[in-house]
Specification:
By secondary structure, the chain is α/β, with parallel strands linked by helices. It has 14 helices and ten strands.
Amino acid sequence: MRPGSYTYREIVGQDEAWAATLAAAATEGAALRPWLARPRAEVAFTGCGSTYYLSVTAAATWQAVTGTPARAFPASELWLYPELALPRSPSLLVAVSRSAETTETLRAVEVYRRRAGDDVLAVSCYAGRPLVAAARHALVARGAEEQSVAQTRSFSSMLLLTLYAALLAAGRDAALRDIEALPALAARQVATYGPLAEQLGRDQGIQRFAFLGSGVRYGLACEAMLKMKEMSLSASEAFHLLEFRHGPKSVVAPDMLVVGLLSQNAREQEAAVLAEVREMGAQTLVLAEDRGAAPLPADYTVYLESGLPNDLRGPLYLPTLQLLAYHRAMAKGLNPDAPRNLSSVVYL
C-alpha cells in the first residue's frame, strides 16, 4: 500500500461511517434515553490524546444542549488526582476510547466506579472490549475502525455519538432528525474543499500552524492541532480564539497559517482577531457556517452551509482540517498512516 493510503481513505470516506453510526444509534440508543435523561448534578467526560480533546468538545456540547454542567478531564487526571476531577454527585461519566483498551481510561473508570458509582457510558469503536465491559452502557461507532494510527473517522464518529447522547438526554427529537443530514454534508465538504486542503498542505511557504476556536469549537481546534503535529511533525498550536491576542500573537509571521473555527453568535468578535493577525502578515483560513453579511478577514474560506445551529455542526469542522494535516505530511515525505514514535493504543 502507498504510504498514507489508509489515512486518506479513512478521512474521505468518513461520511459512510457517520451514516452507519447514526443508523445504529437510532436503533440502539433509544433504550438509553431514560437513563441519560436522569437529573444529575454534573456530567464528566474523559479520554486520552485525541479522545481527551473530543471530551472537551463533548462536554461543552452536552452543557449547551442539556443545561447540565459538564467538564472534561484527561483520564490520567481522574485516575491519579480524583479529588480534583471527580464530578459532583449524582453524576455520569462518559469515557471515550477508540480501542476501548487504553490503560489510563480503564483505570479512570475503576476510580470513578469505586468512588462515585456505576453510571458510566462508554463510547468506542469496538464492542466486547474492556472499557465496554466496565461501563453500565455503551455506544459503539460503526464502520469507524482504522488501520492508521492517527484518529480521523473514529474521532468524528465518536464525537457524533456524544452529540447523539446529549440530544437523547435533552429530549430534542427534532434535532436528532436534523443531524441525519451530517453524513451528506461531510461528503460535500470533502468534494468541495479537498483541493484547498491539498493546496495549503503543499504550500512550503507555510511552516507553522495555529488553530483557534472557542466554545464547543475549542476542543476541535486542539484536535486539528494534534492531527497536524502527529501526521506531519509540523509546529502547531491551539488556543481559544480571543485568547490569541493575549501573548500568543507574538509569534505571528508570514510563514504561519492561522486557522479560525468561527461561531455564529460571536462571529464579529472572533473575526476581528483574524483581521489583526492578517495585518501582522499571517495567512488566514476561516471555517464558518456561511458568508454572512460582512466579508471575512480570510485568505481562504471553508463554508459549512449546514443550516444547523452551533451545537449540532461540530463534526463538520473536521474533514478539511484532517485533509490539511494529511497533505502536509505527504508533502514532507512522511507516512501519516504511521506517525513517528506513536502507536494506536497506549498500554501501561
